[in-house]
Amino acid sequence: MSVNTARFLRDAEMPTGLMKAIVAATQNAIRVQCRRACESRGTRVLQGWGGIGGDLIATIDLESASFRGFIALCLAERAYLDLLNGMLGESYDSLSPERLDGASELLNMIFGQVKTTLTDEKIQMAIPRLLRGAGVPDGLLLPKPSWVLQFRTGQGEFQVLVAPNGKLDQRE
Amino acid sequence: MFPRDTSVLVVDDMMTMRKLVKKAFTSLGFNRVTEAENGAVAFEKIRFLAQSGAPIQLIISDWNMPEMTGIELLKKVRESSFGRNTPFILLTAESEKSQVLEALQARVSGYLVKPFTTDQISEKLKAVYDGIHKKAA
Asked: Do residues A164 and A141 lie in contact, with contact meaning Cβ atoms separated by under 8 Å?
C-alpha cells in the first residue's frame, strides 16, 4: 500500500454504518426484486481521475447540508440482463431502449432503503439518470475520496459508487 | 379482495416498473390493467374513462415521477368529482415518516415500499379492500 493510498483511507474512511446499509440494501433489492443472490466483494477508494467499468450506469444526484454528489450503479450488460430477467420473469438476451430503465429503478430501491438509515441529515434524491453506450463517460472526476462497493451475482460483477462532490466527466 | 375484473391503472415513469407491476396483477388474476407513464397522463386517463362510463377502480402509482408526482396525482384525484373515493396505493422506494404522513393526510388508501414481492402486493390489496368495506359497513 503506497503512502498516498494509506492517507486517503485514513483521512476519508467511509462510515461503517453507511457501508453496511448500502451492502444490505443492495443485497435485499437484488434478492427480493430480481430473485437473485448477490455477494458483497469489498470496498475500495477512488480519488482524482477514476476509470469506471460497465456498459450501463444509473446515477442519482444527491444533495444535503454537507455534501453534493451522486450515487451510481455500474453494470456490465450480461449482469444487468440477468437481473432484469429475474425482475420480469423474462429471458432477454440483449439490451434495447425499453429494457434499460430497470437499472435506474434498482438504484432507486437501493438508495431509498439506505436513505432511511441516514437519520442525521436530510438528503434530497433527484430522479435517476441513465447512461449507456456512447453516453458512458471515459471516467469520473472525483475531487474527494469516493467509494466503490463491489458485488457479484451468478452472471458477473457490478459496482455501487458513492461520490461526494464527484462528477461524471470526459477526459480531454 | 378486489374482483378480478377491477379496472386497474398502473402509473410509473419507468417502463420496467410498469411491466413488473402489471405482470404481478396479471399473475393475481386481474384482467383489466392499463398503464400511464406519469401523473399528468394518468389524470387525463382517469378523467376520460370516468366520463366514458368505464371508470378506473384502483390506482397504483409510483411516488417520484417527472411532470406530476404520485402524491400530486393523489391530491388531484381526491379533489376531483370522479376520483374522490377511488382506492389509491402509492409505491415508493423511500419510507420516511414525513412522506408517509403526507400520503395519509392526502387520503392514500395504502403504501407499498420497494422492493416488493407479488405476495406483498396481494396482501396490500386485501388490506385496502378490507379497509374500504369495513368503513362502508
From this structure: no
Per-residue pLDDT, A3: 37
Contact A101 B66 (CB under 8 A): no
Q: How confident is the model at residue B98 (pLDDT cuts 50, 70, 90)?
A: confident
Confidence of residue A129 (pLDDT cuts 50, 70, 90): confident
Give the per-residue pLDDT at B120. 96
Q: What is the mean pLDDT of chain A?
A: 80
Rounded Cα gap, residues A92 and A88, in angstroms: 10
Nearest to A162 by CA among A55, A39, A15, A56: A15
Identity (one letter) of the amino acid at A52?
I
A108 touches chain B (CB under 8 A): yes
Q: Do A112 and B94 touch (CB under 8 A)?
A: yes
Torsional sign, CA A124, A130, A134, A139 = positive
Query: What are the distances in angstroms from CA B4 to CA A98, B31, B33, B57, B87?
Result: 28, 6, 10, 11, 15
* Of residues A112, A94, A170, the one with CA closest to residue B95: A112
Higher pLDDT, A61 or B135: A61
Residues near A166 by beta carbon (within 8 Å), at least 6 away in sequence: A69, A70, A140, A141, A142, A143, A144, A146
* Residue A115 near chain B (CB below 8 Å): yes
- Residues found in chain A: 172
Which grid coordinates belong to B66?
417527472
Residue B5 grid cell: 375484473
The predicted model scores a pTM of: 0.87
CA distance linking residue B88 with residue A113, whole number of Å:
23
Find how far residue A115's CA is from the centre of its chain: 14
